Amino acid sequence: MDKKYEVKIKKLTEEIKNLENQREYHFNDIKNAPMDKQGIYILYSKKKEILYVGITQKRREGLRGRLKRHFSGKGTFARKIKKSREWIRKNCLFKFRVINSLRKRRILEHFTIAILNPKYND
Predict the structure, then answer these.
(1) DSSP structure string for 48-63
(2) What letter does residue 23 receive in the DSSP assignment?
(3) In whole angstroms, what separates CA 20 from the centre of its chain?
(4) Strand segments (E) across the chain
(5) What is the CATH number of domain 3-116?
(6) What is the 8-class DSSP label of residue 30?
(7) What CA dihedral angle connects 50, 52, 55 and 60, to 10 degrees?
(8) Model pLDDT, residue 72
């Protein structure tokens, strides 16, 4: 493999570790999350099973908008998990990492999904 690709893969792997080391948020403690920021997030169960990896896409939406979509049933995760809002609130946690560049968020999202294989991502 070309050395430049090895370096890129190593950097992306470090980014995933950095994401996994971010603060853990419970949905009942959501007020303390950086809700107006852009970035990547991991939703997982209290048993630490990785359920979904996603990114914020629209500048105005931020993390608040993405999580709201998941709770409203309009987001991919909510449609696939087929659980109630209350079940998600009680049984799911999330981690979030601020990444301002949409291009970097998309690259990291796809790489993270490929490596971690979340249950509800395609």
Answers:
(1) --EEEEEE--STTTHH
(2) P
(3) 10
(4) 24-26, 39-45, 50-55, 92-98
(5) 3.40.1440.10
(6) G
(7) -120
(8) 67
Give which of 116, 103, 120 is closest to 16, Cα–Cα.
Answer: 116
Query: What phi, psi does 44 have (nearest 5°)?
Result: -150, 165
Residues 7-36 have pLDDT tens digits of 989 999 999 999 999 999 887 777 778 878
Q: What is the pLDDT of residues 34-73, one digit of tens each?
A: 878 899 999 999 899 999 999 987 766 778 777 777 666 6
Rg (CA), the chain: 14
DSSP string, 6-36: HHHHHHHHHHHHHHHTSPEEEGGGGGGS-TT
CA distances from 53 to 1, 2, 5, 7, 20 (A): 28, 28, 23, 23, 11
Question: Six-digit token pair at 99?
Answer: 């990444």
Q: Is 38 helix (H, G, I), strand (E, B) or coil?
A: coil
Total residues found in the chain within this entry: 122
